[in-house]
Structure of Large ribosomal subunit protein uL24:
Amino acid sequence: MKQKIRKGDTVEIISGRSEDKKKRGEVIRMIPTESRVVVQGVNIRSRHKGQTQAGRRQIDAGIVKFEAPIHISNVMLVCPKCNKATRVGFSRENGKLSRICKKCNADIDA
Ligand SMILES: [Zn+2]
């Protein structure tokens, strides 16, 4: 399957929440069924711990920060060769499918 973005890639956020725009981070999780990715340090949400449980208030009311998934159309791959956010092409050589940077034509997976 032709996947433009893979786990471990560095991506740049091209749209979405303004504080995340232009941010870069590593893809730490893929959610292929939703076409979403989780990017380290991007799209941070807070979840409050310590909901009441069985009518008893919990003392631990900490806040857990986590990265929420982003739709894959809101991110662009950062080419490891030229360090620019780029569109991705594909090339097949010797039966191996490689991703090609549209900016510098480098083989991203080489
Ligand atoms: Zn490049």
User: Anything to note?
Assistant: The chain has no helices and ten strands.
